[in-house]
Design brief:
Length: 742
């Protein structure tokens, strides 16, 4: 009888996880040992027994079978969180096409050999009354930073120094006089690197409205009956989804189970996080990209030890090693950031579904603009669908949205970036001291430089993109970071007539200043938010009325509540429409709907102006009428026609290489192979074509698209192509192949 071997990692948290050892599986354990099983193995010279995890099973040992030892036994003290995560890693590898190492590195945080740092905290020395007086005093003197601090201290006697500096925008020089006066003191604490520690727990529970109550009741009924399901909450911005999440969390932690809450990084603001802390206190932890690897590791340790019940964070929080997981919540479920950009290219929604199923947990998705994927599943009955169609706060109503045709503006002789209607409303709001948001719906900016004589744009020599002008002095590549000073003449024809084109946030800021010299303007983009907490600082400055107009990209449409914003202007809605991506219509609808949701959060009526060159495009028309259903129907018709997800499965295979001719040959060979095996399976094949950015960092990229309704067929084909590449090392030696399912 043939032998089978187990590939085992000894210590998942310490060393590099890619070190595995082969062990023979004894006959009597063959049934029981699978990926994720914890086993005892004789290790090292002395053959001391150590614990390890099985991460793979194979018939072919990776070294001399005579030297391979046998597994000693199975560890039986229950299924650990790690075992489950390793099984999940196996699923990731199979599903998305990666190596086991890549999958393991995704699900397991690696121990950093650093000592827990000392953390500084700010402790208030004042009692509540003194604090209110200090607050009033600071308000009178317009010490904005102090107001923020005192205000926060009213609810939380202790505030981490880091939060004060990064998120509340307090400088050391603002803190020092307060210490000298004895208002606050600064203490150091040796702590588990817990990024936030708050002592009080004051957030009151609101009385739910009927729409919210229906969701909570349904969930609770299912939960009590032991039914674990997936729920989609389609609720407009401000309809009280977060309030519902908190009730569901409450139910689950009362049952002594744990909860993971995913929130896109850009929406993980102080305001949002504080709501969860206010309700659940120190049982909450948070991870975000600003944490060091060590801090992240510590958060996961605390979760494993059962010190916390709720983990809030972006995509990677999904792998929190809770052992009694009861609920996974995904807010803003439609967000692109839930899709991993590195291998394995998983989508958090799908992995959450798998993890919830493995661990007997419920899954709740929420969005004002559900992804087509989620909504389709809900309509098919795979998810329970709930709707919240009204704003939760009394007196708050939806904004009035109007679409302005920019072609008509031009015809009528208005060449400004502001339509006459937007200009008029801006003047009026500035007069009334109400706030305005100007929104450019694109990632980054397109401030490229081109020559008026020969028409050439200045491009990155390593990447197939134009360089972007920063501060009128440097040209920067947004893909590889390549930087050159702004040239004084055209590199191609030496003409001195070169200038920047395209609308960037900086440019808009200048034009706004010119048009409204009396207005105070804040700008938020990659440049102004570079520093730690820069993003948060600008948002809170705007919330404190330190500006009348906030200009920015999609970053400004998330997170904060600005009750005094009564006008939102979308300057050119077409920008996100004209991207080479089948999701551009969906993204445009989402961005516009979100932008519209920013106006009129409070009692004051709001206006939203959408300026566009394509006023008849359904994404714009339906966003203006705030009609998700109508958008969904039209977009799905397009997806069905074009066989794009979710109407069909789409496998994107990317080939990349430094050697262009080798790349062309290899991609063509793989394409021919895929056509041959795909045809009988009715797979539709497109390509290989050049990627929309063909060259990045001197690496050329080609893409092959495979469409087929049945995912399993695509996975089968992927495996065959993988086999093909292994059997043809001569073709693939210099070519990297990557898979992406959507
Ligand atoms: P969403 O997450 O859908 O954007 P939130 O939960 O943030 O909505 O609620 C929006 C606002 O309405 C918040 O200020 C919240 O405190 C308030 N709110 C939510 N539910 C209720 C309720 N049942 N009664 C009164 N106010 C509510
Ligand atoms: Zn030129
Ligand atoms: Zn570049």
């Amino acid at each position: 009888m043939s032998e089978t071997y187990a590939r085992i990692i000894i210590d998942i948290s310490h060393e590099k996880v890619d070190r595995t050892f082969d062990y023979r599986i004894p006959q009597h354990l063959r049934q029981e040992i699978t990926v994720g099983t914890r086993v005892l193995i004789p290790f090292g010279k002395g053959n001391t027994m150590r614990k390890g995890y099985v991460v793979g099973i194979t018939a072919k040992a990776s070294y001399d079978p005579d030297k391979i030892k046998e597994i000693g036994g199975i560890v039986t003290d229950g299924v650990s969180a790690e075992s489950r995560l390793i099984t999940l890693a196996w699923w990731l590898k199979e599903q998305y096409g990666s190596t086991m190492n890549q999958a393991l590195k995704t699900v397991l945080p690696i121990k950093q050999k650093v000592k827990p740092k000392e953390k500084k905290i700010i402790r208030s020395l004042l009692n509540r009354e003194q604090l209110s007086n200090a607050l009033k005093e600071a308000e009178k003197k317009s010490y904005k930073a102090r107001v923020r601090l005192f205000f926060a201290l009213l609810d939380n006697p202790v505030i981490p120094y880091e939060i004060a500096v990064n998120q509340m925008n307090l400088s050391a020089s603002a803190i020092k006089p307060l210490i000298e006066k004895g208002d606050i003191c600064l203490e150091s604490e040796e702590i588990y690197r817990n990024p936030i520690q708050i002592e009080s727990q004051e957030e009151k529970r609101l009385r739910l409205n009927p729409g919210q109550q229906i969701i909570v009741d349904s969930f609770n009924r299912d939960y009590s009956e032991g039914k674990r399901d997936t729920y989609l909450i389609h609720g407009i911005t401000g309809s009280g989804k977060t309030e519902v999440y908190m009730e569901l969390i409450q139910r689950v932690i009362e049952d002594d189970r744990q909860v993971i809450v995913l929130i896109p990084e850009i929406a993980l603001t102080y305001q949002t996080v504080m709501r969860f802390y206010g309700r659940f206190g120190n049982r909450v932890s948070i991870i975000n990209s600003r944490l060091s690897a060590g801090e992240r590791f510590d958060q996961f340790e605390r979760a494993k030890n059962g010190d916390i019940d709720i983990m809030i964070g972006p995509r990677s929080a999904l792998f929190t090693p809770f052992s009694r997981l009861g609920l996974i919540l995904i807010d803003e479920e439609h967000e692109g950031a839930y899709k991993s950009e590195t291998v394995p290219r998983y989508h958090a929604r799908e992995v959450a579904g798998k993890r919830a199923q493995m661990e007997g947990a419920s899954l709740v998705l929420g969005s004002a603009t559900p992804s087509l994927e989620a909504y389709t599943k809900a309509l098919r009955g795979e998810y329970q669908l709930f709707r919240l169609t009204e704003r939760a706060k009394k007196d708050s109503s939806l904004a009035e949205v109007s679409v302005v045709d920019l072609r008509q503006e031009l015809k009528d002789g208005n060449k400004s970036i502001f339509s006459r209607k937007l200009q008029m409303l801006m003047e009026e709001r500035l007069r009334k001291k109400e706030q305005i948001m100007l929104f450019i719906n694109r990632r980054g900016y397109a401030n490229f430089v081109s020559c008026r004589s020969c028409g050439e744009a200045i491009r990155c020599p390593h990447c197939d993109v134009t360089l972007t002008l920063h501060n009128n002095s440097r040209l920067v590549c947004h893909y590889c970071g390549h930087t050159i000073p702004m040239p004084s003449k055209c590199p191609s024809c030496s003409s001195p007539y070169i200038a920047n084109f395209g609308v960037g946030t900086q440019k808009i800021e200048q034009m706004t200043k010119k048009m409204f010299p009396q207005a105070r303007i804040l700008r938020m983009d990659l440049d102004t938010t570079k520093g730690k907490g820069g993003h948060e600082a600008i948002l809170s400055a705007f919330a404190e009325h330190e500006g009348d107009i906030l200009i920015g990209t999609q970053m400004i449409v998330k997170g904060h509540d600005f009750p005094d914003v009564t006008l939102v202007g979308v300057l050119a809605a077409d920008l996100s429409l004209n991207t080479p991506d089948y999701r551009s219509g969906e993204r445009t609808f989402q961005l516009l709907t979100q932008a519209a949701g920013r106006a009129g959060r409070d009692a004051k009526a709001g206006d939203v102006i959408i300026q566009t060159y394509s006023p008849d495009h359904y994404s714009i028309v339906t966003a203006a009428s705030q009609d998700y259903e109508a958008f969904y129907r039209q977009e799905m018709a397009f997806r069905r026609l074009m066989k794009y997800p979710p109407a069909s499965g789409l496998l994107t295979i990317q080939f990349s290489s430094r050697n262009e001719s080798v790349l062309t040959e290899t991609a063509a060979a793989a394409g021919a192979f895929a056509t041959a095996i795909g045809e009988p399976e009715q797979v539709q094949l497109i390509g290989p074509v050049e990627a929309s950015v063909y060259k990045i960092n001197d690496i050329y990229r080609k893409i092959l698209y495979l469409k087929q309704e049945n995912y399993d067929i695509l996975i089968k084909i992927r495996d065959q192509i993988d086999g093909f590449s292994e059997n043809h090392p001569e073709l693939f030696e210099q070519v990297l192949i990557q898979y992406d399912f959507s």
